[in-house]
Each structure stands twice: as structure tokens, then as C-alpha cells.
Give the backbone structure.
Amino acid sequence: MFNNRVKIKQLLAQEPKEQEVTVMGWIKSFRNNQFIALNDGSTNANIQVVAALGKFEESLLKRFTISAALKVKGIVVPSQGKGQKLELKATEIEVLGDSDAEKYPLQPKKHSMEFLREIAHLRFRTNTFGAVFRIRHSLAFAVHKFFNEKGFVYLHTPIITASDAEGAGEMFRVTTLPFDNPPRNDKGDTDFKEDFFGKSTNLTVSGQLEGELGATALGDIYTFGPTFRAENSNTPRHLAEFWMIEPEMAFYDLEDNMNLAEEFIKYLIKYVFEHNREDLDFLAQRLAEEEKQLPQDKRSEMGLIEKLDFVLNNSFERITYTEAIEILLQSNPYKKKKFQYEVKWGIDMQSEHERYLVEKHFKKPVIVTNYPAAIKAFYMRQNDDGKTVAAMDILAPGIGEIVGGSQREERLDRLEARMKEMHVPAEELYWYLDTRRYGTVPHSGFGLGFERMVQFVTGMSNIRDVIPFPRTPKNAEF
Ligand code: 4AD
Ligand code: MG
């Protein structure tokens, strides 16, 4: 048996009682020819390993370079130095893997996020990414915990799909046909009958439509999986491959839907507060330093911890789209022509508008409801005014849209009429319409962009820094 190690996180929580333990990890630093800071990824904190002077061969000490991997057996003793309660007095040290300090790309200095993205295969070894990915894990775990406690069924919806009915964004095509010379039909078009699935298929943009099939039998379901959008959006909030959580609930109206979404977001934040406090504190500190570089008017009013605490302890503001437009039309930036994009009833609000509402006007998360039907998907429930639908988006400070959802149109005739208007092919979606034919019920759901949630909690300013290997236009490295 090789793995007899104790994780450094657990070890640091113990009392030093001269117990013998084995740790394994990577060297962060080696100083005075005897003090090794060793890290194993279980926490950002390092264990100080003391290789007493004279006890180990000079040839071994030479191999204690940054990022070399070690197995250390030793005795846990109270630390003489400051900054740590205990240290490990090494009795045996084995180098599991050498690391050439001259060539190692991560030098012990501050690297830019852009540089670290280029070496994303190694960036897990930095304190920042250690903290981010432990928090990402906690959030994913908390997602399942939340829904499990509420009796939701985790439904795996397909990743390859033939439906493009959602209209959420451009799709990536999935095919096994030779792209240089695909089979053609009589009209000269690509003949997808010859393709693997016998029809044209894509990577999913959302599991919602299949989710509704589950909800209208199982009651409450949620999906949590990768989704793909081939939009050419080079922004700090868009990925071509991102993870989404899509709960779908039978017997929920729009208000029930909003209540669940708000409770869910708060639950996730609370979970991270309770389980990742050290990592959060580290990222809060990091963000505070990053903000010092910004001009005064670009800095956030609250620190990360303060912001999360505030969100936890205050209700989200709830306004209609029509009210949101009113507020924008009364705003200073509108009057001073500071908005780049037009403001009038009917627009799809741009990031600058959303940020004004959330960051300047309300200074807290805002749920906007009842959007114009024309800018929303066909499946959203039509309101009695004949202009709006029972949609809701949640906008978060620093992020913008973090959740998009709606009550679904459960009335077959209304749904069919809307599909016709929007040129959504009813024949292809017969399976979706069957839920409205056989025991239709009011139901609702929403999608939370997982990376945007991780961004919100960690304070990372670019979405590419909260997913291990970001896929964006012109970038699919690793
Ligand atoms: O608003 P969207 O497009 O909604 C849907 O897909 C619905 N089917 C959800 C539902 O009702 N079940 O996307 C939902 C959320 C957005 O609010 C945003 O947080 C995130 O997914 N999102 C993205 N995140 C990263 N990169 C992208 N390109 C994203 N597009 C959407
Ligand atoms: Mg949306």
C-alpha cells in the first residue's frame, strides 16, 4: 500500500503530540537549507517540513526545488516559528518526482491571469486556482445537496440532440460525415440520412425541454450538465462550453419559481461560507488587492465577504421589465447619453443596463419579470396583456444575468399558436406537445449558469478563470 498519507488540511487541524505521520505533496519553497513548505492541494496552507541540518545528504537537499514532489515521514511537533501551530520534523524524505526549477513556468512571483490561462495545465498549483476549484467543487456538491433535500430527481438529459427548438443560441453540429465530401441528396444538400443518427444533430444548448418531460411525471427534477453555445461572444461572462443547472417543477407558478431560485442561490452561498471560509478569505484579500489597481469609480463598494453576506441577508429586489425600463429612462446615464445602446420598451437589455439596475440603482440582486414576448423563447407562458410573458431573469452585481427562467405555457392552443408565429416546427416537437395533451399542469423552471455562480462567489472577474479548461472562440487548448 502506497497511500498512507494524511492530508495536510487534516494534519493542520490536529494537535502536535509527537505523532508519526506521512505527508505527500509538492514543494512551494525551500529555505535556509532546512525548511520546506509543502502543499498537497487539500488547502492553501502549507505544512512546514523541517529537514534538520546535517540529517540529510547534500545530494538529496539539492533536489528540493520548487514543485518537486515529496513523500515525507516525520513527527508532528509544535512549531518554533510564527505563523503556524505545528510542523513536521522529517525522519525520512523521498523525492517522488524532480522538478527543474529553471524551466518550471510558475515562478514564485505574481503572474497575470492571462499568462496563467496559457498554462492552464499548471495553474491549479497556484493559491488562487486552488481556492477557486475547491469552491467550485463545494458549489457543485451543494447543488445536489439542495435538490436532494427537497426531493428533486436528478435527471440526465441528452448532450447530443436533434432538437434546436430552444433558440438559445448557435449550435455545434455533431456528425460523422466526411466534411470535405459529404453525401448529397437530389437537391445537392448534405444528406443527413446517411449520418450516424440518420438526421442532423447538435450539442445541446439546454436540457430544459427534456427536463419538462421529466417534471410532468416525476414532479420536481433538475439537470446539471454541460451545455454548448457557438456564439461568437468574447466577453468575461461567456463560454462556448458551460455547465448549467436547470430545475423544472410541476405545479409551480412564476412566483414559486422565483422563490425557489432565490432560496437556491442563498443556500449555495451559505454552504460555501460554512465549508470554504479559508479559501473565501484568501480570494477576498486577492480581490481587494486587485481593486486597488483600479480607478476609484471602478472599485466595488463592498468586499467579497461583505457582498456575499449582504446577498444572504437581504431579499432580492423584484421588478417588472416595464418598471426596469422606466428606471433606466429616468437614470442619469440615460439623460447624459452615457449608455451605448438604446433604451425603450421592447429592447433586450444590454449588460450596461443590467449593471446600472443592479450595481447603481438597487445595489443588490434584482429579479426582472414579465419581459416582452418578442425577445423571449416560445415556451414561456403568455400573460393576459398580450405583450409580455411570465419570464424571470435574476441579475447579480458584477455578473449581470445569472439565472434565466419562466413559467411555461401549459395551454396547448396558446403554445401551438406561439410556435407557429415563431416558426418553431410543431411536428418535430410532438413529444414536447404531448405533455400538454395528456394531463397538462402549470409548471415552471429556470437555468442557473454554474460558472457565473462560481464567478459571483469567488469574485473572479473573468469566467475563463472559474472553469478548469475554458472553451471560447479560437481556444480549445488542453
Ligand atoms: O438564459 P438561458 O439561455 O436560459 C436557458 O437556457 C433556459 N433553457 C433555462 C431554463 O429556463 N431552464 O441560460 C440560462 C443561464 C443564464 O442566465 C446564464 O447564467 C447562463 O445560463 N449562460 C451562460 N453562461 C456562460 N456562458 C454562456 N455562453 C452562457 N449562456 C447562458
Ligand atoms: Mg437568458
